[in-house]
Amino acid sequence: MKETDNTFSVDQPEESSGFLLWQVTNLWQREIRKALEPFGITHSQFVLMASIHWLILSKQEVTQVVLSGHTKIDPMTTSTVLRTLQQKGYIQRQEHLTDTRAKTVALTDAGKKLVKKAVVTVEKFDNEFFSILGKKLPELNKNLISLLRQL
Fold this sequence. Notes:
Elements: H1 17-36, H2 43-57, H3 64-71, H4 75-87, E1 91-95, E2 103-107, H5 109-130, H6 137-149
Antiparallel strand pairs: 1-2
Helix pairs in contact: 1-5, 2-4, 2-5, 3-4
């Protein structure tokens, strides 16, 4: 390869934050998929169900728009995943009482039961996965929040 062909600004792949984040994300997603297999749900389905549960516990009204904003999953994907969860009997959607364009979302009894078990499994996995960071974990979370807030 000619020197003029090299358009990279780094000397080593390990110097590329984006590449490292991509690698860690892929590793984490692969392992979280394995952890969720016994529950018969995808990671996106879990995130939406766990978010519904979290928002309800936080006394917030849950709509598809609120869920999309909370999870950072685009609205169309949110709607598609919620439709699948509804077909599986884990959530119910109904027309909003005052906003005819919105739908409220709630977990069914089966959905609550499933998500409570799945949360325990996912939190255990996360604790093990991120344990290597030890006392640096809060700083990682703080930095990730900073990245999320920039958009």
